[in-house]
Specification:
The chain is mostly helical and about 100 residues long. The chain has one domain (about 25-105). Helix content is about 50%, strand content about 0%. The chain has five helices and no strands. α3 crosses α5 (about 85-95) and α4 (about 70-80) packs across α5 (about 85-95). The longest helix is centred in the middle third of the chain and has 19 residues, at about 40-55.
């Protein structure tokens, strides 16, 4: 048992396990987004959360838009999806091009 004055430390591995991803509620409750499949919503969540890394790495294009480096193979591995499914999910997100303003807090 730790004493009252002891300090709890966290390891990098424990910190990674405690991280949370942001999932915009509008993707669940918004009428406009009801036709998006659940896999596409989860993929969006992952990509959206990669923006923080992109900003920290200064991944900006010539117009100062943030971009991130993510390929089909990496996403397929993360979700255990086939390459074809990954391409289909990302195509669904790109095809729909939903209004980004709804995702801002």
């Amino acid at each position: 048992m730790k004493g009252f004055n002891s300090i709890d430390f966290i390891t990098p591995e424990e910190l990674i396990l405690q991280r949370k991803l942001i999932f915009p509620e509008v993707l669940i409750y918004g009428d406009k987004y009801q036709s998006i499949g659940s896999d596409a919503k989860i993929a969006y969540m992952l990509l959206f959360n990669q923006l923080e890394r992109a900003i920290n790495e200064n991944w900006f294009d010539e117009k100062n838009n943030v971009f991130f480096k993510f390929n089909y193979g990496e996403m397929s591995d993360i979700f255990n999806w086939s390459l074809n499914k990954t391409k289909a999910i990302l195509s669904e997100l790109q095809y729909r091009r939903y209004d980004r303003n709804c995702f801002r807090s």
